[in-house]
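Residues determine shape. Next comes a sample protein:
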Amino acid sequence: MLRTRAFSTSARVLSYIGKQPILVPESVKLQISPTEVVVEGPLGRVQMSKPTFVNIASSQDTMSSGSVLSVSVNDATNKTQRAMWGTMRGLINNHVTGVTDGHVALLTLVGTGYRAGVEKDAHTGAPIVSVRCGFSHPINFVIPAGIEVTTPIPTRILIKGADKQQVKLFGASIRLKRPPEPYKGKGIYLDDETITRKATKVK
């Protein structure tokens, strides 16, 4: 009987991603140290930690006035380094996009009386998102630094920021207060989220 051996392709895929160059516009500046990367552009500044085995090199982009980044690791045969290779490349690329174009999360409120608005905290003056989603009182969320929040209409919350993870986590924290429920479809939906509706229980 011929034996076959299964290989995990995840690390291989990540190393392939890691090899892809990153195009950096002229408006974006990078500071690279052995343990940290700082990406700064028109829409903000993002910092991230960097393993010492990850190397980042910059060269002039011959097609524009920007630059090209290449990411590598000390030992591409090491499974941990190979996996981190693609992860680091993806994070840096996200940050470059974030400080130039920004990242967005959209929350949709579905339910009778559900609505939201951007206000200032009565005690601290800090900007907050005040959300009414079926509780006896509004739920307030302090807007983190680096995040911009608007409510184009009362049932939509638009979150923008340079740090993709920060934007999505803030959106997820609001959604968590009233996740969509499958019977009436009420709740707070994040981005293109959909749910499978269930038939109403018959008593």
The helical segments are 10-18, 79-100, 164-175.
